[in-house]
Amino acid sequence: MITVQSLGLRIGAAILCVGCAALGVSAQAQAPADSAQGPRTTAPPAAAGTSAPVAATPTAVTPPPDYLIGPDDLLSIVFWKDKEMSMDVVVRPDGKISLPQLNDVQAAGLTPEQLREGVLAAAAKFYVDPSVNIVVKQINSRKFYITGEVAKPAGYPLTGKLTVVQAIALAGGLNEFAKSDEIAVIRTENGKTTRFLVNYKDITKGKNLQQNIELHVGDTVAVP
User: Fold this and answer.
1) How many other C-beta atoms lie within 10 A of the C-beta of residue 61?
2) How are beta strands 74-79 and 96-99 bridged, if at all?
3) Residue ranges of the domains in the chain?
4) Which fold has domain 143-223?
5) Quick one: which of 12, 55, 116, 207 has the most CB atoms within 10 Å?
6) pLDDT band at 10 (very low <50, low <70, confident <90, very high)
């Protein structure tokens, strides 16, 4: 005989089972959605003042087509996968550079490609299949000179096309009492010295513009 009390207990147990089943179905339905998104991770904050590593590359200049290495030029000798052999070097007054194990290597008077071949030949005595690159970082050997009545007489780098008027501007301009109609450009090539007269006044007035010649390496602009 089923009493009212026992009937109530059975009904309560049935309701409890239905509730648990509903919770299980809900959890199963939510699980695929969470797994589809994948695990969630939080990246640690970057330390202050840090950045991602960047591969170091030498800063190069573009040499003129007729460029030959000269004294005081700054070169970067880069050996592939050999940091100990790679280094920046300044060409000495005797025209040579010094490299680890290779000692003195002639550089002045050569193109960067000719120097690369020379370094490769020297390195082949110590390394198997060496790989090297020559990077020109500063050209200090190609200069012209300006003297006399200008604001800043000195030697200046000549790495591209430069005229007499531009050279005077680079040197800070003419002094007050400069004889601007008697300027001379002195050039020595193949043992022969040539003197070109320049009338600065005429050039600035648009006359005799052919006098505003392009300077060559080693030229001296003399301003009386």
Assistant:
1) 14
2) unpaired
3) 74-138, 143-223
4) Outer membrane lipoprotein wza fold like (3.10.560)
5) 116
6) low
What is the pLDDT at residue 58?
A: 52
pLDDT of residue 160: 84
34-83 tens-digit pLDDT:
444 443 333 333 333 333 333 344 578 888 888 999 999 999 999 988 88
Q: Judge: domain 74-138, CATH 3.30.1950.10.
A: yes
Choose among 199, 192, 206: nearest CA to 223: 199
Q: What 3-state class would DSSP assign to 5?
A: helix
Cα gap 51→71, rounded to integer Å: 38
Long-range contact set of residues 61-65: C-beta below 8 Å, sequence gap at least 24: 61/136, 61/137, 61/138, 61/139, 61/159, 63/112, 63/136, 63/139, 63/159, 64/142, 64/159, 64/160
Amino acid at 101: Q
- Among 135, 209, 121, smallest CA distance to 165 is for 209
Neighbours of 87 (CB within 10 A): 15
Give the 3-state secondary structure of residue 222.
strand
**DSSP-assigned states of every residue in 32-71:** HHHHHH-----PPPPPTT---------------TT----T
| pLDDT tens figures, 76-129 | 999 988 888 899 999 999 999 999 889 899 999 999 999 999 999 999 998 888
**223's tokens:** 């301003």
Q: Is the pTM of this model over 0.90?
A: no
